[in-house]
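quick one
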Amino acid sequence: MINLILFGPPGSGKGTQATQLVEHYNLFHISTGDMFRSEIGNKTELGLLAKSYMDKGALVPDEVTINMLKKRVEENPNVKGFIFDGFPRTVDQAIALDKMLADKGTPITALLELVVPAEELIVRLMNRAKTSGRVDDGKPNIIKNRIQVYRETTAPVANYYAEQDKTYKIKGLGSVEEITEQLIFTLDSALTAG
Ligand code: AMP
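structure w/ adenosine monophosphate:
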């Protein structure tokens, strides 16, 4: 079983690359951002709560996010592995994820971090706003907040997994195909070495 975390700041290409890796490794994709957007679309109580944080570029509280994630993992006991996209975003989420996976006997294999300079992220998110329909894209103040939250609260998650020798950094610039190739090369090398 392979369990991956696709990691990186907003606009680094996590969603796009997750789709590529899902196909290559036959994994089950879990994007907490997509799950929240679906809850918002269905006008659920959880959606309403999540929206109040997402619209500001803030994180949805850990307890809410972890419970939602846990449920999705438990609903899919027979998959070949998971690719977590946009989760964990805090060290407490990472600790909860590790505990959840330890109970299943299938730990995280690797955290793949897409490294993209901040100036490029802003350009990408402003462009994405034209088609994504996302209220948190396209507004410079909200984008800045999301990048700051990433630096302060989310980036430590990469250090947390580096302590377990599971963090791999990949340059997130170039074509989608080039970046996918790098991700696959990095993960395959790690799997052979491990
Ligand atoms: P994303 O689609 O991954 O960029 O997520 C969009 C927004 O959803 C984030 O800016 C957060 O407000 C919220 N969100 C998604 N995943 C998480 C998470 N793991 N923890 C807290 N909030 C999250």
